[in-house]
């Protein structure tokens, strides 16, 4: 691409759809799709191209942000919805939702330092300290971060309002 002078007007994106659990937290689970643990939802995203300043950011992004970022990089109108341009806007927290009626339903919110995950069926709250490696895991934390707990409760309210069949109880 460099030899053919294509790099000067080409955007390169490297990302993944999700991670995998490899028996972490001594729970014996392997794979994906049955939780919202950090190793499953914290995925790499690298953007390279014209107008992108090299560097690293601690901004939190969601999948909905990637499409709008790419559209705006191509000077096209953004899609409707909550996707933000990752080059110019930074989220203070992200919301995640995984729901399957017959098996499990999980919701999670996270900031730069902490993730709270709620299992609607087991009524189990999990907290992860994202500043440690591997993340420090606590089941039913005695005093979760109040702002993240409020964000999680707001997410549960939104899910229950838009998907009444989920009927996810509050933590």
List the helices and strands and how they pair.
Layout: E1 12-15, E2 21-22, E3 30-31, H1 38-41, E4 45-48, H2 63-73, E5 94-100, E6 104-110, E7 114-119, E8 124-129, E9 136-139, H3 146-162
Antiparallel strand pairs: 1-4, 2-3, 5-6, 6-7, 7-8, 8-9
Structural write-up:
The chain has 171 residues and is α+β, with helices and mostly antiparallel strands. The protein has helices spanning 38-41, 63-73, 146-162; strands at residues 12-15, 21-22, 30-31, 45-48, 94-100, 104-110, 114-119, 124-129, 136-139. The strands form 3 sheets. It has a 5-stranded antiparallel sheet, with helices on one face. The protein has a two-stranded antiparallel sheet with strand order 1-4. A two-stranded antiparallel ribbon has the order 2-3. The termini are far apart.
Quick overview:
With 171 residues, the protein is α+β, with helices and mostly antiparallel strands. 19% of the residues lie in helices and 25% in strands.
Name its key features:
single chain; alpha+beta; 171 residues; globular; two-stranded antiparallel sheet; 5-stranded antiparallel sheet; 25% strand
The biggest sheet, with number of strands, parallel, antiparallel or mixed sense and barrel status, is:
5 strands, antiparallel
Portion of residues in beta strands equals 15-25%
Describe the global form: globular
Structural class: alpha+beta
Reading the helices and strands in chain order gives EEEHEHEEEEEH
Low-confidence stretches: none
Mean model confidence by pLDDT: 78
Number of helical segments with 4 or more residues:
3
Helix content: 10-25%
End-to-end gap: 52 Å
- Rg result: 18 Å
| Main sheet: strand order | 5-6-7-8-9
Number of strands: 9
């Amino acid at each position: 691409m460099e030899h053919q002078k294509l790099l000067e007007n080409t955007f390169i994106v490297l990302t993944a759809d999700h991670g995998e659990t490899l028996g972490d937290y001594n729970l014996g689970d392997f794979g994906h799709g049955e939780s919202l643990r950090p190793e499953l939802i914290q995925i790499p995203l690298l953007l390279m191209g014209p107008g992108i300043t090299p560097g690293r950011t601690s901004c939190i992004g969601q999948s909905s942000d990637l499409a709008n970022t790419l559209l705006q990089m191509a000077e096209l109108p953004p899609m409707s919805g909550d996707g933000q341009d990752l080059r110019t806007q930074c989220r203070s927290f992200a919301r995640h939702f995984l729901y399957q009626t017959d098996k499990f339903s999980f919701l999670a919110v996270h900031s730069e330092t902490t993730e709270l995950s709620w299992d609607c069926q087991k009524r189990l709250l999990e907290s992860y300290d994202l500043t440690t490696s591997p993340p420090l895991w606590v089941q039913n934390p005695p005093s979760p971060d109040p702002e993240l707990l409020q964000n999680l409760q707001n997410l549960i309210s939104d899910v229950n309002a838009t998907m009444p069949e989920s009927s996810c109880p509050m933590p």
